[in-house]
């Protein structure tokens, strides 16, 4: 499944166009490598997404072509949520 579609269906990002823009800006990594919107996501992959100053790491658990809102969270497991160290230095 395409990265931008997974981010939208899992509701990690609300809109597919936003998911596309975020990954084009180099703010999404799959298994430690920078990912493009068309990158393929597989079950077991670890995604790291930069939301402003926050880094969120999730593991892909399920791929589905469509999903209901209440089932979207089953598509991934939250592994880590942390402040981006580079940006947090400016907050002190």
From TrEMBL:
InterPro entries named among the record's database cross-references: RqcP, S4_RNA-bd, S4_RNA-bd_sf
Domain of life of the organism encoding this protein: Bacteria
GO biological process: rescue of stalled ribosome
Keywords per UniProt: Protein biosynthesis, RNA-binding, rRNA-binding, tRNA-binding
Gene Ontology terms, MF aspect: ribosomal large subunit binding; rRNA binding; tRNA binding
Bilayer-spanning residue ranges: none
Location of the RNA-binding S4 domain: 1-63
Oligomer and partners: Associates with stalled 50S ribosomal subunits. Binds to RqcH, 23S rRNA and the P-site tRNA. Does not require RqcH for association with 50S subunits.
Function text: Key component of the ribosome quality control system (RQC), a ribosome-associated complex that mediates the extraction of incompletely synthesized nascent chains from stalled ribosomes and their subsequent degradation. RqcH recruits Ala-charged tRNA, and with RqcP directs the elongation of stalled nascent chains on 50S ribosomal subunits, leading to non-templated C-terminal alanine extensions (Ala tail). The Ala tail promotes nascent chain degradation. RqcP is associated with the translocation-like movement of the peptidyl-tRNA from the A-site into the P-site.
HAMAP family named among the record's database cross-references: RqcP
Similarity comment: Belongs to the RqcP family.
Full protein name: RQC P-site tRNA stabilizing factor
Organism from which the protein derives: Paenibacillus naphthalenovorans
Lineage of producing organism: Bacteria, Bacillati, Bacillota, Bacilli, Bacillales
Encoding gene, per UniProt annotation: rqcP
């Amino acid at each position: 499944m395409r990265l931008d579609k997974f981010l939208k269906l899992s509701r990690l990002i609300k809109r597919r166009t936003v998911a596309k823009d975020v990954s084009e800006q180099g703010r999404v990594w799959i298994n430690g490598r920078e990912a493009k919107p068309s990158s393929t996501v597989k079950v077991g992959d670890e995604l790291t997404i930069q939301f402003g100053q926050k880094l969120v790491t999730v593991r892909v658990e399920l791929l589905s072509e469509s999903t209901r809102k209440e089932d979207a969270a089953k598509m991934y497991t939250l592994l880590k949520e942390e402040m981006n160290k580079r940006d947090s230095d400016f907050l002190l």
